[in-house]
């Protein structure tokens, strides 16, 4: 049994693929969260309150990518409760999984779950109804990272925004593996042109950014206006925008959120 938040507007195909990803790795139950919000559920509904309790009472100071939360016993089974973080982007995607005691997963299997969560939830987030709360929640770690970067430099920089074409129509005909490969190719291209003091991030399936401290709008334009995203599966088109960033913008959380809202 599986279900997703109506706000994400995931197709049944996307939900089934994500559910199958948990099933084929022997996961008994799972709840996926975007920040603190439940966005996907897999497994028997009767265990949902217990899973939510583990998530609510977790140690928020621990940021391990794989974090054991404890054990859960039912009348006939015993499970390990694991918190899994999706670590390939700035999106706050987490999942609490129930795995049978003694059942172990290799790192490549954990990574497979992460990739599937990212592939399908990024699609859903792109369709999600926009609210200030959503953006505050998603952008908080990005805002902090940019602020830290500005404080150690000139206090100015630029945010380079790549708005890609809608990739969701390609997911079903290409399949999960090739769809994930496209996303990896996009991030790989951005990483290849990012300097050591810069960082790139993604806030949904179409919106990719590079923050460049101490860079000017004209300098960033010279660097990125002819950037090409190579892919073996599709020809990727995009629109480029470059925005100046300073301490005044970063000090206003709502203003920073509204800045992204226009480009989400």
Report on this model:
There is one protein chain. The chain has 264 residues and is an alpha+beta fold. The protein is built from eight helices and ten strands. It has helices spanning 12-24, 48-56, 107-127, 132-151, 168-192, 217-224, 247-250, 253-261; strands at 2-4, 27-34, 37-42, 66-73, 78-85, 93-100, 156-164, 199-202, 207-213, 238-246. Helix 1 runs antiparallel to helix 3 and helix 4 (132-151) crosses helix 8 (253-261).
The number of helical runs is 8
CA(first)-CA(last) distance:
31 Å
* Structural class estimated from helices and strands: alpha+beta
Shape, please?
globular
- What is the average of the pLDDT values? 82
pLDDT under 50 segments (min length 5)? none
**Gyration radius, rounded:** 19 Å
Tell me the strand order in the biggest sheet: 1-3-2-6-5-4
How is the main sheet built?
A: 6 strands, antiparallel
Topology as H/E string?
EHEEHEEEHHEHEEHEHH
Considering the chains and any ligands shown, give keywords for the structure.
single chain, 264 residues, alpha+beta, six-stranded antiparallel β-sheet, four-stranded antiparallel β-sheet, 8 helices, 10 strands, 41% helix
Brief summary of the model shown:
With 264 residues, the protein is an alpha+beta fold. The chain is built from eight helices and ten strands.
């Amino acid at each position: 049994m599986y279900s997703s938040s109506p706000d994400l507007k995931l197709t049944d195909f996307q939900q089934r693929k994500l559910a199958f990803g948990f099933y084929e790795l022997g996961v008994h139950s799972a709840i996926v969260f975007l920040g603190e919000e439940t966005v996907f559920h897999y497994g028997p509904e009767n265990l949902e309150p217990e899973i939510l309790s583990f998530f609510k009472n977790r140690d928020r100071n621990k940021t391990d990518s794989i974090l054991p939360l404890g054990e859960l016993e039912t009348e006939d089974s015993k499970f390990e409760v694991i918190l899994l973080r999706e670590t390939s982007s700035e999106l706050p995607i987490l999942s609490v999984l129930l795995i049978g005691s003694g059942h172990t997963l290799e790192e490549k299997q954990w990574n497979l779950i992460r990739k599937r969560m990212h592939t399908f939830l990024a699609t859903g987030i792109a369709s999600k109804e926009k609210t200030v709360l959503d953006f505050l929640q998603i952008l908080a770690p990005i805002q902090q990272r940019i602020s830290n970067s500005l404080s150690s430099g000139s206090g100015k920089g630029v945010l380079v925004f790549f708005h890609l074409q809608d990739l969701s129509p390609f997911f079903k005909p290409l399949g999960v593996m090739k769809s994930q490969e496209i996303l990896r190719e996009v991030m790989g291209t951005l990483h290849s042109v990012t300097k050591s003091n810069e960082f790139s991030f993604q806030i949904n399936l179409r919106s990719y950014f590079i923050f460049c401290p101490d860079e000017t709008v004209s300098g960033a334009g010279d660097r990125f206006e002819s950037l090409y995203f190579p892919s073996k599966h599709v020809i990727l088109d995009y629109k480029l925008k470059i925005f100046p960033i300073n301490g005044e913008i970063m000090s206003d959380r709502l203003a920073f959120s509204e800045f992204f809202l226009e480009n989400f």
